[in-house]
Design goal:
Layout (H helix, E strand, L loop, with lengths): L25 E6 L6 E10 L5 E8 L6 E7 L7 E8 L8 E4 L4 E4 L4 E3 L7 E4 H13 L2 H7 L1 H17 L6 E7 L5 E2 L11 E6 L3 H7 L16 H5 L3 E6 L6 E10 L5 E8 L6 E7 L7 E8 L8 E4 L4 E4 L4 E3 L7 E4 H13 L11 H18 L5 E7 L5 E2 L11 E6 L3 H6 L13
């Protein structure tokens, strides 16, 4: 036990025990961030047997009944990180005390389940409580999901049911807590002897883990100069001096390499002019022209489809069969946006047609264009079903698959062989990549 003394001569740190009644917390009046009335925070400084000192804080608001509990380490970040791997075999294992810090990652490999670091506040609980907290987090938005995306809601319900089954300890599973700060803990029921079901591994942190924790080793305190290799360019925004295409005033262009998940690397370029306020952005593929063209057909069924990421290269044509609309390549520059952003760009392109306004406008033509714009707005709002087709001979366009890596039931991707005319438009017929020296 510790030899420190409190204000009244007693120990500052006390062992956690369910039978002890004289553990008196410090109560502090605090602002409730839910209703902005004053609540109370209780702080208790205590020690876990065979572990270390921790601070338990609990906030309660008697106005709105909102409460929040978390723990923090009362010590410093440890010299090494720690990983606990526990084989949960019996019901009694569910009552083991668990300290999980903010920086800890929790995994259950049998379910392919992971709680990433810094997504939850630190907690002092049991294994059963840890599972209950994960279940509560998954069920939090289920009411909304059942209305907007019932398929995903059903899958989450099935996964939650599997998590709840773990609490009965009917089948053996592994609980892994990996904490680079070294301040997490799983109770050893055999202490001070080794627990045959609990494996504790200490390891040296990497530079990336030190950076996440806000600490650095003495030998890497000096800031490294940015390199000129491709990996350094991926993590850096390049700035080029140029002239504004509108007012010809000096401006600058930002360029960034971005990796799109489940697709490829692209180059995003944006030009801003401080003189006239003109802004342009353009996306180009970071790789070569594909061997085959790509045709992507997406059925737009609800407003959530508007949030899908979309990459349209400068060689891509756009079709909306329900509106008998087709936009050829080159009409819109390359874009990395969302489905909603692309549809709005199409609407603005149609409405800003010089032949639809001013002295050149014809009443009948203007009405057709306005009607077309209204149909686009209905598709964006999810009031009308429509197909969005991206036909890219270069194969460098993309629509996000929200079910990845599983197939998307509302999206069809086709590969096809380019025609001679399409190769001619892309300049591939006269391109010679081998033996060009001669």
């Amino acid at each position: 036990m510790s030899s420190e003394k409190g204000v009244n001569g007693g120990p500052v740190f006390k062992d956690i025990s369910a039978e002890e009644d004289d553990m008196q917390p410090t109560i502090i009046e605090s602002l409730c961030m839910n209703c902005y009335e004053n609540g109370s925070t209780r702080l208790l400084l205590t020690r876990i047997p065979f572990f270390k000192e921790i601070i338990i804080s609990s906030f309660t608001c008697h106005h709105c009944n909102w409460s929040n509990t978390e723990i923090q380490s009362a010590g410093r970040i440890q010299e090494q990180g720690v990983q606990y791997a526990l084989k949960v075999k019996a019901k009694m294992d569910m009552n083991r005390e668990v300290v999980k810090s903010d920086s800890a990652t929790t995994k259950i490999p049998e379910l392919d389940f992971e709680i990433p670091a810094f997504t939850q506040k630190g907690s002092l609980s049991t294994i059963e409580g840890l599972i209950d907290r994960a279940v509560a987090g998954l069920e939090q938005d289920q009411v909304v999901r059942r209305a907007t995306d019932p398929d995903v809601a059903v899958k989450i319900d099935e996964f939650v049911a599997r998590l709840k089954e773990l609490k009965n300890a009917e089948s053996e599973f592994t609980l892994v807590i990996d904490d680079p700060s070294g301040n997490s803990f799983i109770e050893n029921l055999c202490a001070p002897n080794n627990d045959p079901d609990l494996t504790v591994t200490h390891y040296k942190r990497t530079e990336q883990q030190n950076a996440v924790l806000g600490i650095q080793e003495n030998d890497i305190l000096e800031q490294e100069k940015p390199g000129n290799d491709l990996e350094s360019l991926r993590n850096e925004v390049l700035i080029f001096n140029t002239n504004c295409p509108e007012c010809n005033a000096p401006a600058h262009t930002n360029m960034k390499l971005v990796q799109i998940p489940h697709f490829k690397e692209v180059i995003i370029m944006a030009t801003n002019c401080d003189n006239c306020g003109h802004r342009t952005n353009e996306v180009k593929s970071g790789g070569a022209t594909e061997e085959q063209g790509t045709k992507i057909t997406l059925l737009l069924t609800n407003p959530l489809d508007m949030m899908r990421d979309l990459l349209k290269s400068e060689t891509c044509s756009i079709l909306i069969p329900e509106l008998e609309f087709e936009l050829g390549m080159g009409a819109l520059a390359g874009k990395f946006t969302t489905v909603e952003g692309l549809l709005k760009d199409i609407r603005d392109l149609i409405l800003k047609n010089p032949f639809s306004c001013g002295d050149s406008s014809v009443s009948e033509r203007s009405e057709k264009l306005k009607s077309f714009a209204e149909k686009i707005d209905k598709i964006i709002a999810g009031k009308e079903l429509a197909h969005l087709v991206l036909d890219d001979p270069s194969g460098n366009s993309y629509i996000q698959n929200v079910y990845a890596p599983e197939p998307d039931p509302n999206m069809k991707t086709e590969k096809y062989t380019r025609s001679f005319e399409q190769n001619e438009e892309l300049g591939l017929n006269d391109m010679k990549t081998e033996g060009y020296e001669a």
